[in-house]
Amino acid sequence: MNGKDIQVNKTFRITSGEIFLTTLEYEEQYKVSRSTQCRNRKNGSGPPFVVHNDRILYPESGILAWLNARLVNSTAELSSSKKAGRYAHLAAAREKARAIRLSRSEREDDDNSPPDETAAGQVNV
Are the C-beta atoms of residues 50 and 41 closer than 8 Å to each other? Predict the structure, then answer.
């Protein structure tokens, strides 16, 4: 050796021929920072990944499929898809709050309804 560091390719290949990228390789090849990768893994908004021997690996086919699913034809689609993804949790929270309000109002309606004709102590003839 001539004293220079040798860079070893850490790409994993599984017997099926699938190529898996490490977080570093994913960062270098697709320009996605590790902090963004981490955030995407936590909220499920990134490409699929596996954990193998305490290492996070991204199947290259999964990255490409994820990217293809995000393709748009115009900037109008981009803004609407971003809004839909960015605010999806708010829409779900609003729907849950609405359901809670409806169930509360139904209970209040039941409490305010007129008493039955056969109240306790009365005899129906």
Answer: no
How far, in Å, CA of 125 to CA of 123, rounded? 6
Phi, psi of 102 (to 5 degrees): -65, -45
CA-to-CA distance for 63 and 26, rounded, in angstroms?
9
Question: How sure is the predictor about 84, in pLDDT bands with cuts at 50, 70 and 90?
Answer: low
Percent of the chain having pLDDT more than 90? 34
| φ/ψ of residue 6, rounded to 5 | -100, 125
Instruction: Give the confidence band of 102 by pLDDT, cuts at 50, 70, 90.
Output: confident
Token pair for 66? 């994820």
Structure tokens at 72: 């748009």
Query: At CA 10, angle to CA 70 and CA 68, rounded to 5?
Result: 10
Side chain identity, residue 99: A
